[in-house]
C-alpha cells in the first residue's frame, strides 16, 4: 500500500492519496526530439487508457513452475539476496536454509543449527574475507480450526563492512562446516556519498506480486541494468491465499467467511526463489505495504516482511523496519512505510537535495504529478504485475465518485481520505475531471528508472511492459533550481535516537 521514497528533503506533507481511479482517451506520444523538463510545466493533465489488447488475465505462477521450486539440497542456501546498509561501505547478504513446514503440529527448525557465514572478496579466488551474522525462524500461526500453521526455513542475515565504493565483490554464503556453501555470486557496491557521485540507474517498482506479468516486469527491469532496485511495498501477495494454498483475485470477496485474513506463506518462498537470479546481484530495498501486514495469532503482524528482508534501520537510527534511510552516492533515500505514525518523524528528517522524486504508491496504475516551482514531483509507480485488478477507472469520471462513508480505513481506523479543503474541488470528495496536479496518468504494468545526472537534473523514465525495451511510456527531467529554491537544512531534534546524515 502506501509508502514513499524520497531523494531529498521532505519538509512536505504526505501526498493525499486518492484511492480510486480512471480513463479518458487522450494520448501523448513521447516527443522523440527533446525530453521535457519539469520547468516546462505545469502540464495539461493527460490520461492514457490501457490498450484493450492488454487486458489479459494476471495469473500467479503456480507452484509447479520450475522458477519457484526448491532446487537446493539439505541446508544449502536458497533465496539469496543483497541489500544495502546505510552507506556505500556495507551491504547485507540474506538467504534461507532448510525447508519450511506447513500443516498441523509443525516443529520449527532450530536457527542455531546452521551457521551464517559469507566469504567474499574482490577476486573470485581466493575469497579472502569472512563475515558472520545471525539467523532466525519465524512462524505464521493461526489458532483456528482448519487453518494450517507455517514455520519458515532458517533465515540468515550477514552484514559485510569495510567495502570499497563502486567495486565488484564476489561472495559465497552458507555454512562451511557442513559443506553447504552457495555458488559464487557477485554484486557491485554503490558510489561513495557526496556531490557529483551518482549511481547510473535506480529501478523503482511497486505491487510486484508473482504473476506472469511480474515475470515480464522483472525481466524488463533486469534488462535496464539497474544498480539498485527499490520495491515500494506489496511484495509476494501471499495474503491472497488461504492456508490450504487456494488463491483468489479478490480475497475480501471470496473468503470473507474465514476467521482471520489467512495467508499461504510458501508464496513468499516462491517469490524469494523467483527473484534470486536478479537480487543476488542487484541490491533490493523494500518497504512494507498493506499486503505485508499478515495478521496471525497474538495479533502479530508483518512477521514475514520483517524477518525475510535485511533493512539498514539500526544503521540509520530507526527503531523499526517500517522506516529507514540510506545513501547511494549523492542521493539520500528515506523509506517510509505507511504503518507507523509520522508526525514526529517527519519533523526530524533533515536532508540534502531538494531535487525530488517521491513515489506514493497505492493505486494500481501509474501517475506523475505536476509540481509547485520548488516542490516535489510525486510519482505513483502503481503496478508491477500483481494479481489484483489494475486500476482503470477514475473517481473523477462521471458516476465514479464514491460516497465518503464507504471508504473507511479498516487497518488504521478513520477514513483513508476526506473532502478537499482547497482548489477547484474544495468541499467535495472528488474532482470532476483529472486534477490539475496530475500531469500524466495511465493504467499499465511496468517499472521506473531514475537516473540522477548531477546535482540539479534527474531523468525519470516509466517503462511499460507492453513496450519494447528502449521505449519510454513517460519521461521527464526533474530539475532543481538551487538559486531559486535554496536548501535550508533544518534539524529538529524531536527524536533523540534519530541520526541525521547531512550530505554536502
Ligand atoms: C499480463 O499478462 C498476460 C499474459 O500472461 C497478457 O495477456 C496481458 O496483456 C498482460 N497485461 C498487461 C497489462 O500487460
Ligand atoms: C497453530 O498454532 C496455534 C497457536 O500456537 C495453535 O493454537 C493451533 O492449534 C495450531 N494449529 C495447528 C493446525 O497445528
Ligand atoms: C481450501 O479451503 C477452501 C475453503 O474451505 C475450499 O473451498 C478449497 O477447496 C480448499 N482447497 C484445497 C486445495 O483443499
Ligand atoms: C488483539 O486485538 C484485539 C482487537 O484490537 C483485542 O481485542 C485483543 O485483546 C488483542 N489480543 C491480544 C492477545 O493482544
Ligand atoms: C523544497 O521542497 C519543499 C517541498 O515542496 C518546498 O516547500 C521548499 O520550498 C523547497 N525548498 C527548500 C529550500 O526547502
Ligand atoms: C464531502 O463531499 C461530498 C460530495 O462529494 C458531500 O456529499 C459531503 O457532504 C461533503 N462532506 C463534508 C463534511 O463537507
Ligand atoms: C546536469 O545534467 C543535465 C542533463 O544531463 C545537463 O543538461 C546540465 O547541463 C547538467 N548541469 C551541470 C551543472 O552539469
From TrEMBL:
Q: Tell me the InterPro entries matching this sequence.
A: Calcineurin-like_PHP, Metallo-depent_PP-like, MPP_PAP, PAPs-like, PAPs_C, PAPs_N, Purple_acid_Pase-like_N
Domain Purple acid phosphatase C-terminal intervals:
429-468
Q: Which domain of life is it from?
A: Eukaryota
| Residue stretches making up the Calcineurin-like phosphoesterase domain | 201-356
- Give the enzyme's main class according to its UniProt record, as a single word: hydrolase
Q: What Pfam families does UniProt report for this protein, alphabetically? A: Metallophos, Metallophos_C, Pur_ac_phosph_N
Signal peptide location: 1-29
Family under the similarity heading: Belongs to the metallophosphoesterase superfamily. Purple acid phosphatase family.
Q: Which PANTHER family match?
A: ACID PHOSPHATASE RELATED, PURPLE ACID PHOSPHATASE 13
Q: What is this protein called?
A: Purple acid phosphatase
User: Which species does this protein come from?
Assistant: Dillenia turbinata
Amino acid at each position: 500500500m502506501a509508502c514513499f521514497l524520497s531523494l531529498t528533503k521532505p519538509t512536505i506533507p504526505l501526498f493525499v492519496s486518492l484511492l480510486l481511479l480512471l480513463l479518458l482517451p487522450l494520448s501523448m506520444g513521447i516527443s522523440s526530439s527533446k525530453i521535457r523538463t519539469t520547468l516546462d510545466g505545469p502540464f495539461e493533465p493527460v490520461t492514457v487508457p490501457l490498450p484493450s489488447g492488454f487486458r489479459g488475465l494476471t495469473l500467479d505462477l503456480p507452484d509447479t513452475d520450475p522458477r519457484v521450486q526448491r532446487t537446493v539440497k539439505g541446508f544449502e542456501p536458497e533465496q539469496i539476496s543483497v541489500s544495502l546498509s546505510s552507506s556505500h561501505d556495507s551491504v547485507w547478504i540474506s538467504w534461507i536454509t532448510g525447508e519450511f513446514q506447513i500443516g498441523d503440529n509443525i516443529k520449527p527448525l532450530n536457527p542455531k543449527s546452521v551457521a551464517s557465514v559469507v566469504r567474499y572478496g574482490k577476486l573470485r579466488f581466493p575469497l579472502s574475507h569472512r563475515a558472520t551474522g545471525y539467523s532466525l525462524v519465524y512462524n505464521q500461526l493461526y489458532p483456528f480450526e482448519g487453518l494450517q500453521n507455517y514455520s519458515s526455513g532458517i533465515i540468515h542475515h550477514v552484514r559485510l563492512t569495510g567495502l570499497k565504493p563502486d567495486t565488484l565483490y564476489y561472495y559465497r554464503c552458507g555454512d562451511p562446516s557442513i559443506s553447504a556453501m552457495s555458488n559464487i555470486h557477485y554484486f557491485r557496491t554503490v558510489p561513495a556519498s557526496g556531490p557529483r557521485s551518482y549511481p547510473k540507474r535506480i529501478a523503482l517498482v511497486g505491487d510486484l506480486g508473482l504473476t506472469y506479468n511480474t515475470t515480464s516486469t522483472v525481466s524488463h527491469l533486469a534488462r535496464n541494468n539497474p544498480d539498485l532496485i527499490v520495491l515500494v511495498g506489496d511484495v509476494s501477495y501471499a495474503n491472497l491465499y488461504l492456508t490450504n494454498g487456494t488463491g483468489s483475485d479478490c480475497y475480501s470477496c471470496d473468503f470473507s467467511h474465514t476467521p482471520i485474513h489467512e495467508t499461504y506463506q510458501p508464496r513468499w518462498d516462491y517469490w524469494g526463489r523467483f527473484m534470486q537470479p536478479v537480487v543476488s546481484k542487484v541490491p533490493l530495498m523494500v518497504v512494507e505495504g498493506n499486503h505485508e501486514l499478515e495478521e496471525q495469532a497474538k495479533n502479530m503482524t508483518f512477521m514475514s516482511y520483517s524477518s525475510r528482508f535485511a533493512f539498514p534501520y539500526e544503521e540509520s537510527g530507526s527503531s523499526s523496519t517500517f522506516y529507514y534511510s540510506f545513501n547511494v552516492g549523492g542521493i539520500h533515500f528515506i523509506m517510509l512505510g505507511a504503518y507507523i505514525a509520522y508526525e514526529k518523524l517527519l519533523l526530524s528528517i533533515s536532508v540534502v537535495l531538494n531535487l525530488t522524486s517521491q513515489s506514493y504508491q497505492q493505486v494500481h496504475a501509474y501517475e506523475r504529478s505536476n509540481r509547485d516551482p520548488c516542490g516535489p514531483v510525486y510519482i505513483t509507480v502503481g503496478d508491477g504485475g500483481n494479481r489484483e485488478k489494475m486500476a482503470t477507472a477514475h473517481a473523477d469520471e462521471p458516476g465514479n465518485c464514491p460516497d465518503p462513508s464507504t471508504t473507511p480505513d479498516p487497518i488504521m481506523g478513520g477514513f483513508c481520505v476526506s473532502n478537499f479543503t482547497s482548489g477547484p474541488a474544495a468541499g467535495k470528495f472528488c474532482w470532476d475531471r483529472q486534477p490539475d496536479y496530475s500531469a500524466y496518468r495511465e493504467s499499465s504494468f511496468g517499472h521506473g528508472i531514475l537516473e540522477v545526472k548531477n546535482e540539479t537534473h534527474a531523468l525519470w523514465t516509466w517503462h511499460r511492459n507492453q513496450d519494447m525495451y528502449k521505449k519510454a511510456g513517460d519521461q521527464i527531467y526533474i530539475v532543481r533550481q538551487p538559486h531559486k529554491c535554496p536548501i535550508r537544512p533544518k534539524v529538529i531534534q524531536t527524536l533523540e535516537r534519530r541520526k541525521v546524515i547531512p550530505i554536502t
